[in-house]
Write a structure and sequence with these properties.
Two copies of one chain form a homodimer. By secondary structure, the first copy, chain A, is α/β, with parallel strands linked by helices. Chain A has ten helices and 14 strands. In chain A, helix 7 crosses helix 8. The interface between A and B is large, with 45 and 45 residues.
Chain lengths: 347, 347
């Protein structure tokens, strides 16, 4: 299963120099429609009926089909380069920092001296880049199902894929659920589920989408964590589907006997989405949520980070300073609007 | 200038029962394009090149042209009824609570016993509804330039326009800047600039859009406030134009000698925008910002509210409880991402 690094060239752009003037449509097996209407890329899904978000396409840089999904990279006029998987925007150069920094530092700054970290998904490398800021970390495993995502990110998003350059990183290409099941119990201090594709796709093809947020998956994650270990995973937007969040929170409370918390932040172009259809919704409103949970053991108070990371200090001088995360925004992320607080506190 | 209430019937919908099947375009004098493409309403502006947000139109309920702007109300498939002024979404039934509650309670919960409050703009009545929750308030003046907005809101958005039913409210139809200039110095405890239209339009026709956030306007506001009085005004999204916010903050610091703060929150469909072209941008990302400033006098610490409002207690039993605002979210709104904090703290 393990495979370390990759230098294979990716498929070349279909037409590297030509501006998009015509109309290109793609209809994927996932039953939603993505289209580049004349000069524009639109996300329109039957799952978020009545709403669409469009970015102007300047140039298509790459189009390919992996064993798992359609992969598209285009140059937008205002958000820099954009990565699209099966028609869903995953990442834009302009705003990827918010998502990557928050999903990583919310868990890692909440425990003292994290040493072993696992990233499930996250093939673009952005979460690796953030994990690598923590000098206490000795081992960073990543399990990504789709090698094309890794290769495309290295070619077109070097400031994101820079995460792979850290010598502590070991890349495993394969199914995240299988990887987790094979891990000895209590291995990791922290697991970050950046499920842009591998697990989501795996589950999408094998069963109901909700599985990713149901007890069996959380149970597998829980067993791979040490006592008092932490997990961070995407968890929907409070603006759209509180009933889904309600279920996720209830499931987490049954599995994670340490603490269970919901946090949120804003991401203008929704740089990352789980590919599960119902979760595409989280993209619509520019707000993304995270579940932060810990296993039974040393107590973890996520709202009050014990392991601050200074915005201007980096273990690697080659990396940019933090753009989004700081200790104040960490704590603020757990303050919820009244309508969401009522539901989550009641679980 | 003063006019209290209004019972005039508004212009009837063009075709109250007919579904939208065709394509309708409007081009306004404000130089941006709004269009209802087949079944969809889109905001596309040359000022946010390369990005568009669309809501599916189920039915157009009202179309009219006031002395100031085009007014459109449509039924959307997922956000309830939507109010559009000159092509810009101002308010949706689904998410208006976040904006209305935050722009109102951030200032009013930061001072003890506010008694006299002025709302500039806010013709829909939502801010009035929120101000009226404060039992200490004795006088609520509102100056709105466009009577059609008031009438349309009363007809189509009764849960928002309910604000007008409070006996403390006095409606003045007229230009907000002129109104402010005529106010005796030191009149108000709080001024809320909900400039969806009146001042914005006024300034748009008389000079550069930026005037609304420049010193002469802030100076007029400052003089109308008592010592230690507070103002709350929209102030752009940190995701798009930090340089504009930078200028606004610098201007505020010169005028408001008490304290000057920037706060932010999320609003999926951007229920309210200033009509100034450059500020349309704030709508794009589902994030909206506010300037919270106080005049010289008793010190105001906006980050630690001294006048909490209980989510479940309302002076009027006819009103819904608060949906978004609470004391935690109040304080959290002032925690900024690192990139924004650096800029704002440097001013």
């Amino acid at each position: 299963m393990a495979e370390t690094g990759s230098d294979l060239p990716v498929k070349r752009p279909r037409d590297d120099e030509q501006e998009i003037n015509g109309s290109i449509s793609m209809e994927t097996e996932s039953n939603y429609i993505s289209s580049v209407i004349p000069g524009w890329f639109s996300e329109i899904s039957p799952m978020w009926p009545g709403e669409a978000h469009s970015l102007k396409v300047e140039k298509i840089l790459f189009e390919g089909k992996s064993d798992f999904q359609n992969v598209l990279v285009f140059q937008s006029s205002t958000y820099g380069k954009v990565l699209v998987l099966d028609g869903v925007i995953q990442l834009t150069e302009r705003d990827e920092c918010a998502y990557q920094e928050m999903i990583t530092h919310l868990p890692l700054c909440s425990i003292p001296n994290p040493k072993k970290v696992l990233v499930i998904g996250g093939g673009d490398g952005g979460v690796l880049r953030e994990v690598a800021r923590h000098s206490s970390v000795e081992q960073i495993d990543i399990c990504e199902i789709d090698k094309m995502v890794v290769d495309v990110s290295k070619q077109f998003f070097p400031e994101v894929a820079v995460g792979y350059e850290d010598p502590r990183v070991k890349l495993h290409i394969g199914d995240g659920v299988a990887f987790l099941k094979a891990v000895p119990a209590g291995t990791y201090d922290a697991i970050i589920v950046d499920s842009s594709d591998p697990i989501a796709l795996c589950l999408f093809h094998s069963g109901p989408a909700q599985e990713l947020f149901e007890k069996p998956f959380f149970d597998t994650v829980s067993k791979a964590l040490r006592p008092g270990g932490v997990v961070s995973t995407q968890a929907e937007s409070i603006w759209l589907h509180m009933h889904i969040i309600e279920d996720i929170v209830a499931n987490c409370r049954q599995i994670f006997k340490g603490s269970v918390n919901y946090a949120w932040t804003t991401v203008p172009t929704y740089p990352r989405h789980i590919l599960l259809i119902f979760l595409l919704l989280l993209s619509v409103v520019g707000v993304i949520g995270f579940m932060l949970c810990s296993t039974e053991g040393p107590s973890v108070d996520f709202k009050h980070p014990v392991n601050p990371i200074d915005a201007d200090k980096n273990p690697s001088k080659s990396r940019e300073p933090l753009k989004f995360y700081n200790s104040e925004i960490h704590t603020a992320a757990f303050c919820l609007p009244t309508f969401a607080k009522k539901v989550i506190d009641s679980k």
